[in-house]
Design a protein that fits this description.
heterodimer, A: alpha/beta, Rossmann fold, Ubiquitin-like (UB roll), de novo design (two linked rop proteins), 5-stranded mixed beta sheet, 4-stranded parallel beta sheet, 11 strands, B: alpha+beta, 4-stranded antiparallel beta sheet, globular
């Protein structure tokens, strides 16, 4: 049984309401935090080794220490709750069932960063969650946790919930800032970074929901204790949202020490693949990260067991590894078609591109059209190389990471599943009636003996 | 001001050529100070428009050395128009295969849905996209799908909008924003169906809105009063001025014989407007008697299917840097216009021709 920090009180009925949350030790960490200095809190977060849970995995303490603090200029904490990555729904779970844990994290972080007005930018499609959050904020305010002079510390803080209007791109931090300011959600050119000039050109920190919620256990137990959980630079616990072909899809908290195999097959987590089918491929960190076949998912190219943490999942780089990403764990069994799956993702990125810079605006649509041809039996052999070339010319050449996010899934699919693409091209009619199946994707990989 | 301590300049090396520039200069502007072939092309950056640039990605360069203090190379290619120089920075533009490859990709993306209706486009001959694809593009497209089209939209009596040709550089949006008081021109939709439009489809009416025609790098915004009247390369640019109550009145007339076909603002060697002109000068003063003519514009062969860059007598403080000096060989162009056409010979100085350029001026013998 792994350690639970964020979802430790998950079994308690009514934990989403203030009274229950408070009775179960809620807001005691905030009490502790207000006795500390803001700099000490930042120091604890640094010690904890907490890494951003939104996908990039950047150390949170370091991000906080970059925040500019010019005299007389307000600073802001913005919570990125625009969780739109296909396959990722962990933040929704936190906000829906543990809103007070989230608010406590927001409060402590706001105090640490000196943000008197903190914003939660929430995905437009999460239509019912702003009500839950606003109710929780009102409860917290009634109990004196928000507003003026909190706990007599002289620190004022208000939390505002801002609804997005349904754009994936607004999950990119600078596009989110633009949208929060009421403008079109186009990513900004960097530099200046938000830590220097963010919302209304004021210093801003943008963090993911789970990151901010994790600040609560960090302050509660101390940064060093938190860092003892997990392995290496993957400290603490991570929420994973599992979907696809597993017996028990849902949100799980792991302490980053379990192996991928255990995570998929054990009854504590996903409970295996349903209907006696076998594992074909998996995207372990949300739609943007590279897809890997079963053999490379369970073992690294060196033949070592792969674990559910940042380092182990990215072992082997993009050639044979993948990424932890945002924790959207998508499992595909042998009845799934990787070509079709890649086409679906390409359609998503084509639809969500903001249209600001040329490679992403034009390239995403092109990739989708080619993939559509291959999927529906109209593809050519040269299309596969063309796809490879297009993704190569998008990746790294765009303003924001959406270009990379659109390129990586296509690149990985071709890299690992080229046989399946070629089969589609060579068998245009057969590919319309049946799937390529598991083929050799779960076969043990040949590990060259080390010299 | 003379008491100020001398501003420490940053030394930056672009394609093996060093120059000292004030801190805060972008790589692109530093390259423009050197001039010639080391200057990256720019489709969306416009030095006169605040916040422009960074979008088209044609000006991507490789920073092979970050600075003297931090010599690490930058991992990604950088948009030179939005990246400021650091002391000791080393930049590769045409000497980097990565840059040329990425740029070729960007040109392909820009042309993907571009209609290539150059034969009937009023911009042809002075189109930045034509120049860019001439220098960096491929001979053929790999795109096999139907090109994207838009519903035609009327944005007023003077300006014609061809959304199909638009490359989304945002220049006109910034122009409308920064030159006029009301925000009446912007982008609708997103992704590959994003389009330029006016608020609620209203006509653009502002004294200076005509300048969006000049900033447009392609034929998306063209002058209705010049529409299908003549080809750009048959008209001769002449600098002229008039006493205008609204603007500086310094303009460029595009004439054929004594007839004024078109009035535009004067542009510098980077094809950027020098001074904005008003709609009255642009659309209504189409007779020679309205203007005091100064003489033929010194534009060398910039706008008439030139090979991308000015190679003449204006703008550049130093003599242009030739590509063979930088990479030790002559560039390979997709095609050399002089091999297939007798017009626009390099030895004929266009500004020295009195009337409009005519095939006779190029010594063509009629059989």
């Amino acid at each position: 049984m792994g350690i639970k920090l964020l979802l430790a009180n998950d079994h308690i009925e009514g934990i989403r309401y203030y009274e229950t949350y408070r009775k179960n030790g809620g807001y005691t960490t905030a009490e502790k935090a207000f006795k500390m200095s803001p700099a000490d809190i930042v120091e604890e977060v640094k010690k904890s080794g907490l890494r951003g849970r939104g996908g990039a995995g950047f150390p949170t303490g370091m991000k906080w220490s970059f925040l500019a603090k010019p005299e007389g200029v307000p600073r802001h904490l913005v919570c990125n709750a625009d969780e739109s990555e296909p396959g990722t729904f962990k933040d929704r779970y936190l906000m829906e069932f543990h809103p007070h844990l989230f608010i406590e994290g927001l409060l402590i972080s706001s105090y640490a960063l000196g943000s008197n007005a903190t914003y939660v930018y929430i995905r437009g499609e999460y239509a019912w969650i702003p009500d839950i959050l606003e109710q929780a904020i009102a409860e917290a305010k009634n109990a004196g946790w928000l507003g003026k002079n909190i706990l007599g510390s002289g620190f004022d803080c208000e939390i505002y919930v801002h609804r997005g209007a349904g754009a994936y791109i607004c999950g990119e931090e600078t596009a989110l800032i633009e949208s929060l300011e009421g403008k079109r959600g186009n990513p900004r050119m960097k530099p200046p970074f938000p830590a220097i000039q963010g919302v209304w050109m004021r210093p801003t920190v943008v963090n993911n929901v789970e990151t901010l919620a994790a600040v609560v256990p960090i302050i509660q137990m101390g940064g060093e204790e938190y860092a003892k959980i997990g392995v290496g630079r993957s400290t603490g616990t991570k929420l994973l949202s599992v979907c696809g072909n597993v017996n028990k899809p849902g949100v799980y908290e792991i302490d980053m020490t379990c192996s991928v195999e255990e995570f998929i097959y054990s009854d504590e987590y996903c409970g295996g693949i349903p209907k006696g089918r076998s594992l074909k491929a998996c995207i372990p960190g949300g739609s943007s990260v590279p897809i890997v076949p079963a053999n490379l998912l369970l073992k690294t190219a060196k033949g070592e067991t792969r674990y559910m943490n940042y380092e182990s999942l990215s072992d082997g780089g993009f050639a044979t590894g993948t990424m932890m990403g945002s924790g959207g764990f998508i499992v595909l069994d042998d009845a799934q078609c990787v070509v079709r799956h890649t086409m679906t993702l390409a359609r998503f990125y084509n639809h969500e591109s903001c249209g600001q810079c040329s490679p992403c605006r034009e390239g995403t649509g092109w990739m989708y059209k080619i993939l559509k041809n291959i999927e529906y039996g109209k593809g050519k052999m040269s299309d596969i190389d063309l796809l490879w070339d297009i993704q190569r010319k998008i990746e790294g050449n765009t303003i924001c990471p959406l270009g990379d996010a659109a390129a990586w899934p296509v690149a990985a699919a071709i890299r690992h599943f080229r046989d399946e693409f070629e089969w589609h091209v060579k068998n245009p009619e057969e590919s319309q009636t049946r799937n390529f199946g598991l083929a050799h994707y779960a076969d043990p990989i040949h590990v060259p003996a080390s010299a | 001001m003379s008491e100020q301590t001398p501003n420490p300049n940053f030394k930056v090396t672009i394609d093996n050529i060093s120059i000292e520039v004030p801190p805060g200069t972008t790589i692109l502007n530093a390259a423009r100070m050197i001039g010639g072939d080391v200057t990256p092309p720019a489709m969306c950056y416009y030095s006169k428009l605040k916040n422009s640039g960074g979008k088209c990605r044609t000006c991507l360069v490789e920073v092979s050395k970050g600075s003297e203090k931090d010599p690490r190379p930058m991992p990604k290619l950088m948009a030179s128009c939005r990246t400021t120089v650091m002391d000791g920075m080393e930049v590769k533009n045409i000497t980097s295969d990565r840059v040329l490859d990425a740029r070729k990709g960007v040109v392909e993306f820009l042309l993907l849905n571009h209609p290539l209706d150059c034969p009937v486009c009023d911009q042809a001959g002075e189109c930045d996209l034509q120049n860019l694809s001439y220098e960096h593009g491929s001979e053929a497209t790999r795109y096999e799908f139907k090109r994207r089209t838009f519903e035609k939209e009327d944005i007023g009596p003077y300006i014609s909008l061809h959304m199909n040709r638009c490359i989304m550089c945002f220049r006109c949006v910034y122009t409308a924003d920064q030159l006029t008081e009301r925000r009446e021109h912007g982008i609708l939709e997103r992704g590959d169906h994003a389009q330029i439009s006016t608020m609620l489809g209203k006509a653009l009416d502002n004294d200076f809105i005509g300048n969006v025609i000049d900033v447009c790098p392609v034929g998306a915004l063209t002058d209705k009063t010049f529409r299908f009247k003549n080809r750009v390369w048959f008209t001769k640019p002449v600098d002229a001025h008039r006493d205008c109550p609204t603007c500086s009145g310094k303009a460029r007339l595009w004439m054929r014989g004594e007839e004024v076909f078109r009035v535009t603002a004067r542009k510098d060697e980077w094809n950027e407007v020098e001074e904005w002109i008003c709609n009255d000068c642009r659309f209504h003063k189409k007779e020679t008697k309205d203007w005091v003519i100064e003489g033929p514009s010194k534009i060398s062969r910039s706008s008439v299917i030139a090979q991308g860059h000015y190679q003449g007598n204006v703008g550049c403080n130093s003599s242009p840097v030739l590509i063979d000096k930088v990479i030790g060989k002559q560039p390979k162009y997709t095609l050399d216009i002089h091999n297939i056409s007798d017009v626009n010979k390099p030895n004929v100085e266009l500004s020295k021709i009195d009337g409009p350029a005519h095939s006779d001026d190029f010594g063509l013998q009629k059989k």
